[in-house]
């Protein structure tokens, strides 16, 4: 069976590299799935879940990803994400606590300040984690 | 005749300095590994990023993205000086700092204003002493650069550049060429050099056929311009992050080399001092014997 090689890379390190059958990513224009032999494509990614299937119905890995890009050639999918975390590593209670804390910090900071955008960025990340963890 | 006791004290003092430098050398040697691992881990991302950018740039045609357009009048330049928080690393810090300082004065003499972003305590104290204003400072991070730091610098640079506050952004840092050598690098971050993109393109054409496939009909989501627009800031961020990580590795390597030669020097000094000490002691004994013999001879007469 033809297969795809999927790489998930963050600025800090290469997170994941494995052969698989299908990769589903959250593009900014909607979700996309890639099978072997997909036409070359390059897209920006929204925050969400990258799912990796070893065959048509088996979900083997799932990653929460924030931001980034995906590049697809016939046999390779490269996901460049700002942050990623494997779905099984997400600690839901910790994430919930973080969200509460960040939400408070977000409300406390002045509008248009640099801190606010930093906090907002973190907040989006934890919300992504929450939704990915909730989906499992 | 120098005092024997003083010499002994000096030997002891050099010995204890040697202990410190040798320990620092070993600590730095251990840290080099971790730091260079981090450089390796960061490389796949920046490589793919550069490759993607080259692809998109080739396909998007002439883009009028603000980060690509050169400003006609270079009136204001931003220098990002990446150094360490700690000294005792040989010429590591001063190389970068002196280069930036010279550039700042050169820019001023041409009537342009120069802004400096300092990463590392050494840069902060150096520029504050010389009354050069700092736009943004980072400390306590040089050994452990974070993405947040890179993001903040990049955001500042990009916003400033887009708003016309800066006409050029230059990054000065030490590149860890290998475990023993550092290389001072001065890179222009903004405007993003379209030559760099072009070059990456050529290199790609020479590489595997798989890569070639990409330069053909690639589907862009949402479209090539939009992808390019979002890739460019990320590229700037990656470049800066890579420089920070690279500099951290270079710092440890520089410190190790510096401490190694300090230890060697201390060894040499102890040897010379010990020899001198022995000679002085022997000289004293000889004088004493001479005196006794002379005294005895005088009594016999």
Largest sheet of chain A: 5 strands, mixed
In CATH, the topology of the largest domain in chain B is named: Pyruvate Kinase, Chain: A, domain 1
Helix/strand class of chain B: alpha/beta
CATH superfamily of the largest domain in chain A: F0F1 ATP synthase delta/epsilon subunit, N-terminal
- Please name the CATH architecture of the largest domain in chain A: Sandwich
Largest interface comes to:
A-B, 30 and 34 residues
Cα radius of gyration of chain B in angstroms: 29 Å
Residue share in helices of chain B?
55-70%
List low-confidence stretches of chain A.
none
Residue fraction in strands of chain A = 35-45%
Individual helix count of chain A:
2
Q: Would you identify the CATH architecture of the largest domain in chain B?
A: 3-Layer(aba) Sandwich
What top-tier CATH class of the largest domain in chain A fits best?
Answer: Mainly Beta
* Physical arrangement of strands within the biggest beta sheet of chain A: 2-1-9-8-5
Assign the CATH superfamily of the largest domain in chain B: ATP synthase, F1 complex, gamma subunit
Oligomeric state: heterodimer
Characterization of this structure:
The complex is a heterodimer of chains A (136) and B (301). Chain A has 2 helices and 10 strands. By secondary structure, chain A is of the alpha+beta class. Chain A folds into 2 domains: 4-87, F0F1 ATP synthase delta/epsilon subunit, N-terminal (ATP Synthase, domain 1, Sandwich), CATH 2.60.15.10; 91-135. In chain A, helix 1 runs antiparallel to helix 2. Chain A is elongated and about 50 Å long. Chain B is α/β, with parallel strands linked by helices and 301 residues long. Chain B has 2 domains: 4-27 and 257-295, Helix Hairpins (Orthogonal Bundle), CATH 1.10.287; 28-256, Pyruvate Kinase, Chain: A, domain 1. In chain B, 65% of the residues lie in helices and 13% in strands. Chain B is built from 7 helices and 6 strands, in the order αβαβαβαββααβα. Chain B has helices spanning 4-60, 92-109, 121-129, 147-162, 194-206, 209-215, 224-300, and strands at 76-82, 113-119, 134-138, 168-176, 182-190, 219-221. Chain B has a 5-stranded mixed β-sheet with strand order 3-2-1-4-5, with helices on both faces. The A-B interface holds A 7, 9-14, 27-29, 32, 39-44, 68-69, 71, 73-76, 78, 80, 82, 114, 117-118 and B 38, 41-42, 44-46, 48-49, 52, 55-56, 147-148, 150, 152, 155, 210, 213-214, 216-222, 226-227, 230-231, 234, 237-238, 241.
């Amino acid at each position: 069976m033809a297969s795809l090689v999927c790489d998930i890379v963050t600025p800090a390190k290469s997170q994941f590299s494995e052969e698989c059958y299908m990769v589903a990513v959250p593009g900014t224009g909607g979700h996309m799935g890639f099978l072997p032999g997909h036409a070359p494509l390059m897209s920006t990614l929204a925050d969400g879940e990258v799912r990796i299937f070893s065959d048509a119905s088996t979900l083997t890995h799932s990653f929460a990803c924030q931001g980034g890009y995906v590049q697809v050639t016939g046999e390779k999918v490269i996901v460049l994400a700002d942050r990623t975390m494997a779905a099984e590593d997400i600690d839901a209670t910790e994430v919930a606590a973080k969200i509460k804390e960040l939400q408070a910090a977000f409300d406390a900071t002045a509008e248009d300040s640099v801190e606010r955008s930093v906090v907002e960025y973190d907040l989006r990340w934890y919300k992504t984690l929450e939704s990915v963890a909730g989906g499992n | 005749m120098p005092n024997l006791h003083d010499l002994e004290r000096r030997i002891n003092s050099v010995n204890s300095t040697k202990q410190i430098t040798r320990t620092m050398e070993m600590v730095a040697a251990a840290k080099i590994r971790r730091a260079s691992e981090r450089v390796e881990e960061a490389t796949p991302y920046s490589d793919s990023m550069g490759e993607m950018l080259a692809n998109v740039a080739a396909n998007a045609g002439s883009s009028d993205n603000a980060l690509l357009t050169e400003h006609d009048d270079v009136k204001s330049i931003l220098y990002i000086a990446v150094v360490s928080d700690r000294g005792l690393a040989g010429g590591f810090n001063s190389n970068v700092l002196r280069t930036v300082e010279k550039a700042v004065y050169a820019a001023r003499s041409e009537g342009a204003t120069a802004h400096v972003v300092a990463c590392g305590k050494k840069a902060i104290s150096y520029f504050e002493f010389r009354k050069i204003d700092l736009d943004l400072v980072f400390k306590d991070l040089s050994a452990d650069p974070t993405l947040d730091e890179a993001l903040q610098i990049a955001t500042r640079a990009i916003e400033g550049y887009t708003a016309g506050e800066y006409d050029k952004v230059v990054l000065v840092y030490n590149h860890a060429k290998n475990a023993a050598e550092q290389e001072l690098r001065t890179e222009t971050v903004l405007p993003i050099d379209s030559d760099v993109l072009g070059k990456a393109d050529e290199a790609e054409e020479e590489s595997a056929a798989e890569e070639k496939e990409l330069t053909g009909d690639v589907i862009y989501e949402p479209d090539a311009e939009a992808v390019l627009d979002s890739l460019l800031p990320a590229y700037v961020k990656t470049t800066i992050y890579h420089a920070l990580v690279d500099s951290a590795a270079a710092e440890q390597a520089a410190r190790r080399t510096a401490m190694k030669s300090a230890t060697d020097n201390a060894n040499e000094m102890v040897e010379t001092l010990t020899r001198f000490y022995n000679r002085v002691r022997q000289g004293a004994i000889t004088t004493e014997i001479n005196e006794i013999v002379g005294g005895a001879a005088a009594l016999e007469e």
